Amino acid sequence: SKNRLTEDLLLPVFRLAFKAPRLRNLNQAKVNFPYIDLADEKSGIAVQVTTERGAAKVTGTLTSFVSKGYQSRYKRLVVFVLTASKLKYTAASKREWQAICGQACRGQALHFDSASDILTTLDLLRLIQSLPHPKIRLVHDVIARSVIGEAFVDVESYLMRQSRRQLDHEKKSGKYI
User: Fold this and answer.
1) How far is 144 from 153, CA to CA, in rounded Å?
2) Is 98 left (phi over 0), alpha (psi -120 to 50) or beta?
3) Three-state DSSP class for residue 118
4) Are 78 and 119 spatial neighbours (Cβ–Cβ below 8 Å)?
5) 92 with 99: CB under 8 angstroms?
6) Rounded to whole angstroms, how far apart are CA atoms 59 and 139?
7) What one-character DSSP code corresponds to residue 22?
8) How much is the pTM?
9) pLDDT tens for each residue of 132-171
10) Which residues neighbour 164 within 8 Å (Cβ) at sequence distance 6 or greater?
């Protein structure tokens, strides 16, 4: 699924962007870990990766997160929505989310601010831009070595093979000069 692929592809980027070097994919330890996908207990951050954009998904995630008592281990919950679009939620939804955290999290601080904790790919770029230059370079290197990066595909050998095939074809066709 897109979510699972995103979790693994962006895990090293999230580690840098969220300053969570021990961030790990919980779904590798338990298939379909309940309500969160990535977490770093030392830095106290949990991440839900989803393609669902609606307020109901955020409400359900928050409700389940606090019902499981995760706020005792993770002080911040981030919902990463795999979309390039800017998301907008009603004031009523935002009040509901505050109420969920306020009632269920008494005595245990859970940081959840819809403005900073519901992120899209565009927001991730903003987070990366705010990193110091050496960290931005690390993000670049991580992406370059991933399956979507230029360092993953050996372009030179691919072009060499393609050129040889084309030359062989031209020789056989009699059009080779």
Assistant:
1) 9
2) alpha
3) strand
4) yes
5) no
6) 31
7) T
8) 0.76
9) 998 888 888 877 776 555 555 565 676 777 778 777 877 8
10) none
